[in-house]
């Protein structure tokens, strides 16, 4: 299930990068295919990158078949199951979740058609930056986001193993996926190496190989997301990957305010920084009385 969920994420990430090349950089199908071919010689070497290049070039009656395909993506359910499991176990598998929602949004094809005539986007000029440099940034953004997706998938398996008492060999799982699955890639070998070095690795992002890889990709990753946002190009998976990364590396998050809000309206209590494990309640009005919303329990 997690394999298929990661597959959803990989496919959506590739589609978002394709969309940026097509709509911002105004690249032809053949130019985009050449880019994917080039990426397939390096760290992004994978089955999905390879077949994407083939799809982009394929013609019938001298016309690109891809350009005539209806932009409404189907799904069998395994990505959805991964998202549901992540919610049940409390694991933030955000990228796979967004990839499922992206397919759901694509299915609203008639509604999107009507919305496109009424909802305005940004008024921006054609891209005038360094195209070659930006394509390099796109590769970095794709690679960094892919790392996040796999890290989240392994987080979910780790939590399930903890709850069910499983002893999973994560390196062997990566090796198995590399052998003949849709997400097979050179990248999976790096995951196996990470778990070979430390079988109790807390998170893939904390392995030195992936830490260094993210650091090298970070500038391009951020530039791609900022540029796509300015141009109004939807990038749900690229952007949620960066949001997760920034959240995961944050020593302090604004969840303290959420806890205060919960305590205000529902007396759900909170912990203090210097007294973890001790739950207290505050009467936030300062003048006594019942301040709780008794019908709200979240």
TrEMBL record:
Keywords assigned by UniProt, alphabetized: Gluconate utilization, NADP, Oxidoreductase, Pentose shunt
Alphabetized Pfam families for the sequence: 6PGD (PF00393)
Single GO MF annotation: phosphogluconate dehydrogenase (decarboxylating) activity
InterPro entries reported in the protein's UniProt record: 6-PGluconate_DH-like_C_sf, 6PGD_dom2, 6PGDH_C, 6PGDH_Gnd/GntZ, 6PGdom_BS, Pgluconate_DH
Record pathway: Carbohydrate degradation; pentose phosphate pathway; D-ribulose 5-phosphate from D-glucose 6-phosphate (oxidative stage): step 3/3
Function: Catalyzes the oxidative decarboxylation of 6-phosphogluconate to ribulose 5-phosphate and CO(2), with concomitant reduction of NADP to NADPH.
Name of the molecule in the record: 6-phosphogluconate dehydrogenase, decarboxylating
